[in-house]
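can u pls check wat happens w/ manganese (II) ion
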Amino acid sequence: MIIVMKADIRPDSEEVKQIIQTAHQYPQVNTQVHVIQGTTRSLTEIYLLGSTATVPQERFEAFPSVERVVRIRNKYKAIGRHEETMESTAFDYNGVHFSQNSFHIFAGLCAVDTKEHVQEMFSALKACGLTTTRAGAYKPRTNPYDFQGLGKECLPYVFELAGKYGIKVIAMEVTHETQIDEIAHALKTSGFATGVMLQIGTRNAQNFELLKFVGKQTDFPVLFKRGMGITLEESLNACEYIASSGNRKIIFCLRGMKTNLGDPHRYFVDFSHVPVVKRHTRLPVAIDPSHSVGKRLEAPDGALDIHHATAQGVIAGANMVLVDFHPHPEKALCDGPQALLLNELEQFVEDANLVRECYQKRTAIFKNAYL
Ligand code: PEP
Ligand code: MN
């Protein structure tokens, strides 16, 4: 972090001493004072070095002697683009390629409730040529009396059916490290019939111990969901925990922000941040139109708000769509009101692919502009 003092503040002044004292209140933060000669003036700058990630910028901005505070962009050391000097990262998992240029639709059950529903879902995916899905076994619920997911008991049939229907990757939320062992064990027992992408839900976005745990293992890629009530910067820092622990197979997922200004949607759709995340990080970016919109609202043009939100994310370059479907939403034990129907899957895929093509044509316009 660099604190730029106002033009008349000398390096040996009381104001500078005050800033240094404040900085030293934070553990493992060191300071250096530099006098910078600009074209028209010289400026005193105080560099905060060391563990500055959690030092609040606002604390220093509040001093009248401070002109501005600049957070240096190397804090997302592992996931960051560093002013676009780094290329985006790519990885392959179970035969599926992920990068800032790839595009996959993960359509499926918010939560596994019955074996029959899993079978109906996977069979519909196969009919549409999809090999990527979602299926929640461990559900973090707001209310402790709500359905919490079937847990490890459903894993054997989920993986077996996935193998049968050619599913290559299942996004599956984990809320505790022990569940990763359960998944690994069931996958092994199934003869590695499919693959699993570990999902970190928005409610665990700052569960740093869980993030470190999924970061220490490299068997499974991780889908990290942005925290619903924290800044993008805080979410990126949290995501950095995964990468700094060793695992670089990460996808960053936008899923809407908690604010009533988004009403009547469940969360405020934040998909205009797709290019922002692609610029700041090297990671592929996913969108979740189901949990952000949260309802089957229909626009006067006949498309659902979920379709329009999907299009907004895909037209902006999203690399993955995580979307809820259910064969019988009225019987779903979790998030039924936002689930699309299986007979709507084909049109969803057609629409999303159409928008993806349009995105590619759009980027060609801008690339050509520089030729
Ligand atoms: C989910 O995808 O099932 C989920 C709970 O999403 P989020 O963590 O974004 O609320
Ligand atoms: Mn859900």
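Residues 2-70 form a domain with the Alpha-Beta Plaits fold (CATH 3.30.70.1140).
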